């Protein structure tokens, strides 16, 4: 008599064209029918939605064992890759000290410790003198640890900080007395990532809680020294499409409450000097009108898409925030993403020509673009907490240049390098990057950034590792990765695709990759891969595609649309069961996501979404090698989506390529939290890509 097989692994289907490896976990099938606008849908793996079912846990654990077996076969490579990543990181390091009033703040890391240590001092040289929060201490006893809020009050006497200990993004908010280093009795449960804000006198703290669907929806005012049940509800958003955020203006004079759906926003303001007053609406929400507001001393600055697809700027009197006057005109193709206000200048975050940039605008109307590089790069505003400042700090990086923090003097234009991220033992001159343009099926030009070893010839011999996202108008700038160097050193070409659905070429680029145009995201990616291969930047049988979350949808859609195009695929916490998830309003995020993907509870969106949903289109085919990840506590893409997908793939595929899934049983959307575990996780992913595209 053989070993007892868990119920979760008893297959009710045998024979057919299914191809299995010996020992491969097979999920049981239970008859289940969904009623959809286009008809009945049989879903024999719907039972995996019940995380309290012992069979669900048994199946996830079986998948983890199968994954562990595969990686055990390649453990020397995993260990080598981990060592390479670790060797390229200066483990004991610190950020450039940042001044706020009479204090200098800094974060540092120590060799052997997984998390950051947050400190301050009275000068830049003594900024590590006082430890405010050691994440390593707070993480003891927890498999997962992450902080969200880290907010010092205006008096620099109290620290509001919040932590998540299981990856669920359910945070506990605490207040630390910085004189004693101990936390007060104040403790707020059920808080979110959606911000905090102190009143000007430091006696009140504003924060946000989530509803049953894990949507940030309610702003509270907490008086320091009281219990959470005494907190006052400041604002509650009843519309399930809208998220709520809170923050303080850089000036410290205002509390700003942002309420946002995908196509609409509404902003409320409260004087930080009169925190117990009711919030004032700037302008009531209107469909397809998005705006945000910044305090700029004697006026407000408003960023709005009013008659401006790619947004423009207005100003408004301080006492009449709804009365807007034009300030910076709209320019099609130059998408203004955000505005940061300082006492005497503004910093505009923009995307133009598929490239980010920072533009400084002065009160007299003059301006300056902070030039970084001509090659594909990223540039972001760094920490600039001071309201009165004659300098601006920003960070820059590229696919082949590590992050560097610069400070530019606004009057003279003189630029000082404050810190360049060290990459020990690496000759960065060995690497090169460039921008290419692929042609989509409808003739649209799609930007693609590639990195490779200098001297690599496009002769069609190299493994090609492609990464993509393409949703939510999220522009993915070229970023540096020490882990990526392990691919380049082994002769691979790495490519970053910018398909429609992102925001790299303005708002229209996004609009042409959402709702009824969503397929463009996937066909743009496919066209980009075909272009890279045709131009010799990759061997046609050595192509991998990687993406996470909505990028995991991109991977899944490309896998099911064109399985023969790829040799390997990595889908990290992938959103792949599109129709079923978007048909269930009880799931986290569903209602808010209808304006991104569509509502499949009615036609024509139901059929359109079914047409690209990976789970619905996983049919009998030869598939590439696939590595899927999931997080049991993931509130964004629920674990059962990747679990159902791999179960179906095992059932229908007609070949025996590697098919593995790793589910983090104590983490969420972002995977392991500690840096060493994150590096090892990345080493496993790189090993999979290298083995399967060799």
Concise summary:
This protein is α+β, with helices and mostly antiparallel strands and 694 residues long. The radius of gyration is 26 Å and the shape is globular.
Characterize the structure shown.
- This protein has 694 residues and is an alpha+beta fold.
- It contains twelve helices and 38 strands.
- Strand 25 and strand 26 (367-369) form a beta hairpin.
- Helix 2 (75-87) packs across helix 12 (675-692) and helix 6 packs across helix 7 (550-561).
- It starts with 32 loop residues before the first strand and ends with a helix.
- The model is unreliable at 1-7 and 10-16 (pLDDT under 50).
Total helical elements: 12
**Rg to the nearest angstrom?**
26 Å
- CATH class of the domain at 142-287, named Mainly Beta
Question: What is the terminal-to-terminal distance?
Answer: 41 Å
At CATH level 2, the architecture of the domain at 142-287 is 7 Propeller
- What percent of the residues sit in helical stretches (DSSP H or I)? 10-25%
Give the strand tally: 38
Largest sheet: 8 strands, mixed
Estimate the global geometry from the Cα principal axes. Answer: globular
Give the overall pLDDT as a whole number.
Answer: 95
Hey, roughly how much beta strand do the residues contain? 25-35%
Low-confidence stretches: 1-7, 10-16
Spatial arrangement of strands, main beta sheet? 31-32-34-33-35-36-37-38
**The CATH topology of the domain at 142-287 is what?**
Methylamine Dehydrogenase, Chain H
The class by helix and strand makeup works out as alpha+beta
CATH homology superfamily name of the domain at 142-287: Prolyl oligopeptidase, N-terminal domain
């Amino acid at each position: 008599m053989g070993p007892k097989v868990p119920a979760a692994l008893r297959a009710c289907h045998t024979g057919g064209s299914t191809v299995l490896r010996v020992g491969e976990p097979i999920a049981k099938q239970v008859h289940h029918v969904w009623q959809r606008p286009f008809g009945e849908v049989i879903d024999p793996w719907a039972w995996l939605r019940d995380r309290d079912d012992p069979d669900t846990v048994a199946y996830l654990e079986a998948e983890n064992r199968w994954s562990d077996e595969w990686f055990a076969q390649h453990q020397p490579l995993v260990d080598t890759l981990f060592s390479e990543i670790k060797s390229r990181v200066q483990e004991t390091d610190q950020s450039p000290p940042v001044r706020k009033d009479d204090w200098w703040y800094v974060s540092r890391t120590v060799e052997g410790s997984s998390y950051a240590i947050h400190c301050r001092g009275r000068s830049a040289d003594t900024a590590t003198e006082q430890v405010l929060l050691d994440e390593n201490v707070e993480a003891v006893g927890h498999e997962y640890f992450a902080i969200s809020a880290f907010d010092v009050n205006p008096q620099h006497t109290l620290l509001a900080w919040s932590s998540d200990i299981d990856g669920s993004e359910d945070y506990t908010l605490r207040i630390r007395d910085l004189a004693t280093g101990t936390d007060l009795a104040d403790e707020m449960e059920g808080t979110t990532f959606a911000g905090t804000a102190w009143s000007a006198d430091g006696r009140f703290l504003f924060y946000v809680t989530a509803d049953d669907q894990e949507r940030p929806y309610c702003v509270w005012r907490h008086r320091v020294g009281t219990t959470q049940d005494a907190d006052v509800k400041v604002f509650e958003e009843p519309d399930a499409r809208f998220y709520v955020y809170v923050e303080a203006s850089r000036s410290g004079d205002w509390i700003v409450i942002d309420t946002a759906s995908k196509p609409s926003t509404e902003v409320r303001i409260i004087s930080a000097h009169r925190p117990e007053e009711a919030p004032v609406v700037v302008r009531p929400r209107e469909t397809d009108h998005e705006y945000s507001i910044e305090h700029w001393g004697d006026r407000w600055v408003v960023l709005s898409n009013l008659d401006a697809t790619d947004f423009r700027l207005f100003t408004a009197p301080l006492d009449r925030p709804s009365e807007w006057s034009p300030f910076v005109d709209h320019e099609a193709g130059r998408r203004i993403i955000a505005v940061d206000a300082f006492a005497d200048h503004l910093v505009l975050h923009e995307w133009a020509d598929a490239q980010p940039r920072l533009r400084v605008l002065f009160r007299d109307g003059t301006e300056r673009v902070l030039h970084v590089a001509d090659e594909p790069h990223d540039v972001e505003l760094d920490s600039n907490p001071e309201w009165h400042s004659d300098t601006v700090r920003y960070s820059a990086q590229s696919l082949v240049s590590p992050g560097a923090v610069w400070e530019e003097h606004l009057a003279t234009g003189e630029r000082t390098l404050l810190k360049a991220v060290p990459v020990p033992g690496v000759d960065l001159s060995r690497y090169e990057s460039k921008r290419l343009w692929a042609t989509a099926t409808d003739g649209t030009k799609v930007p693609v950034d590639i990195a490779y070893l200098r001297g690599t010839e496009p002769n069609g011999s190299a493994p090609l590792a492609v990464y993509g996202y393409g949703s939510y108008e999220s522009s993915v700038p070229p970023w540096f990765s020490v882990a990526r160097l392990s691919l380049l050193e082994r002769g691979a070409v790495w490519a970053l695709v910018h398909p429609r659905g992102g925001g790299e070429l303005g708002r229209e680029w996004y609009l042409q990759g959402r709702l009824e145009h969503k397929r463009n995201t996937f066909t743009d990616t496919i066209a980009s891969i075909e272009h890279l291969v045709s131009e010799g930047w990759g061997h046609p049988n050595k192509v991998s595609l990687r993406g996470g979350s909505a990028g995991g949808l991109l991977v899944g859609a490309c896998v099911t649309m064109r399985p023969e195009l790829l040799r390997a695929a990595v889908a990290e916490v992938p959103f792949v069961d599109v129709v079923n998830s978007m048909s269930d309003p009880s799931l986290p995020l569903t209602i808010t996501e209808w304006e991104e993907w569509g509502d499949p509870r009615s036609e024509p969106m139901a059929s359109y979404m079914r047409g690209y949903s990976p789970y619905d289109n996983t049919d009998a085919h030869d598939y590439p090698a696939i590595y899927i990840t999931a997080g049991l506590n993931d509130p964004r893409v629920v674990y059962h989506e990747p679990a159902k997908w791999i179960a179906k793939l095992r059932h229908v595929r007609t070949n025996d390529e590697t098919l593995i899934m790793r589910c983090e049983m104590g983490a969420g959307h972002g995977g392991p939290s500690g840096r060493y575990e994150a590096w090892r996780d990345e080493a496993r992913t790189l090993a999979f890509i290298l083995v399967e595209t060799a």
